[in-house]
């Protein structure tokens, strides 16, 4: 797939997509483009990991608890060193998690394949 | 497709999180030994208090060693929250029983990390862990020796005073 990013023409590769979004990897810029429910953001590896950590940190059952400290049920996610901010309801948190879980799963598969084929590390 | 995870970091997410939980355990040991030093001091066991102050410092060194390794490998080192520190003990002996228990738990924990490294053929981290595995030999040895003093010297009459006097003499010399 060929897309245009900034001034340069780069090859984007889809890491994973489902009906809530899509994650592309850009080898040229060594980064990821994450599209979630129509919102697009560019993340470094570090930032993408941070986003995943933050999403995994939420306890959905606590959001729904009768004595919840957060009766609105809405969580705000910001990623340091970027200007991105998500305001997510519990369903969106679950969907976003799913998107990133699958993304990281596929990245790991890519890693295992690379290890086998390119470096012959794992027998 | 480039392996961007690998470009970023030598260690896998799993090993990184195991190392981070070890950082937390070392921080806990550091704080726990400090609490023990406080108890010993307040109960008149000055030599043991000194011994545990030193142990606490060592645990802090262990914590930093792991912390810096994670960073050097490109990982995300997490400064841990420390909780669950025991500050009261029923006897002088119980202090050492707890110390041994803690060191055994640490050894087991390193064995678990080593097993994970073997599984994913992370020999780089394995080589780093060797230092800690060797260190645990000393840690368990010293804790066990200290506890044995209670049987050898006995707790009657001036026994506890004698035990406290002997604690600083415990050392592990075997280098092989
Ligand atoms: Fe330690
Ligand atoms: Fe120790």
UniProtKB/TrEMBL annotation, chain B:
Q: Which InterPro entries match?
A: Ferritin, Ferritin-like, Ferritin-like_diiron, Ferritin-like_SF, Ferritin_DPS_dom, Ferritin_prok
Keyword Nucleotidyltransferase carried by entry = no
One Pfam match: Ferritin
Q: Name one GO cellular component term.
A: cytoplasm
The UniProt record gives the binding positions of Fe cation as 26, 59, 62, 103, 136
UniProt entry keywords in alphabetical sequence: Cytoplasm, Iron, Iron storage, Metal-binding, Oxidoreductase
Cross-referenced Gene3D superfamilies, in alphabetical order?
1.20.1260.10
List the molecular function annotations (GO) for this entry: ferric iron binding; ferrous iron binding; identical protein binding; oxidoreductase activity
Q: Does the keyword Metal-binding apply?
A: yes
Kindly list the biological process annotations in GO that this record carries: intracellular iron ion homeostasis; iron ion transport
Top-level taxon: Bacteria
Q: Which reaction does it catalyse?
A: 4 Fe(2+) + O2 + 6 H2O = 4 iron(III) oxide-hydroxide + 12 H(+)
Major place of localization? cytoplasm
The entry sums up its family as follows: Belongs to the ferritin family. Prokaryotic subfamily.
Function field: May alleviate iron toxicity in the presence of oxygen. Iron-storage protein.
Q: Which PANTHER family match?
A: BACTERIAL NON-HEME FERRITIN (PTHR11431:SF127), FERRITIN (PTHR11431)
In its UniProt entry, what is this protein called? Ferritin
Say which species the protein is native to.
Answer: Pelobium manganitolerans
């Amino acid at each position: 797939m060929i897309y245009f990013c900034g001034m340069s023409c780069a090859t984007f590769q889809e890491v994973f997509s489902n009906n809530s979004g899509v994650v592309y990897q850009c080898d040229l810029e060594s980064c990821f483009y994450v599209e979630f429910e129509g919102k697009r953001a560019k993340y470094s590896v570090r930032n993408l990991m941070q986003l995943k950590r933050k999403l995994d940190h939420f306890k959905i059952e606590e959001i729904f608890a009768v004595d919840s400290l957060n009766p609105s049920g809405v969580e705000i996610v910001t990623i340091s060193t970027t200007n991105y901010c998500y305001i997510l309801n519990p369903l969106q948190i679950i969907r976003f998690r799913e998107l990133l879980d699958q993304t990281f799963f596929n990245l790991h598969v890519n890693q295992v394949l690379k290890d086998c084929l390119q470096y012959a590390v794992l027998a | 497709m480039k392996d961007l995870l690998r470009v970023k970091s030598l260690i896998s997410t799993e090993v990184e999180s195991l190392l981070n939980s070890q950082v937390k355990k070392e921080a806990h040991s550091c704080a726990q030994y400090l609490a023990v030093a406080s108890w010993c001091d307040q109960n008149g066991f000055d030599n043991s208090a000194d011994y545990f102050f030193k142990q606490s410092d060592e645990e802090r060194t262990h914590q930093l060693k792991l912390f810096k390794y994670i960073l050097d490998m490109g990982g995300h080192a997490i400064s841990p929250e420390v909780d669950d520190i025991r500050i009261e003990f029923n006897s002088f002996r119980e202090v050492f029983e707890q110390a041994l228990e803690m060191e055994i738990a640490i050894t087991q924990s390193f064995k678990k990390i080593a097993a994970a490294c073997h599984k994913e053929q992370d020999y780089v981290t394995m080589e780093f862990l060797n230092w800690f595995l060797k260190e645990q030999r000393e840690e368990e040895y010293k804790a066990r020796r200290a506890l044995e003093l209670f049987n050898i010297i006995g707790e009657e009459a001036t026994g506890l005073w004698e035990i406290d006097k002997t604690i600083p003499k415990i050392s592990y010399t075997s280098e092989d």
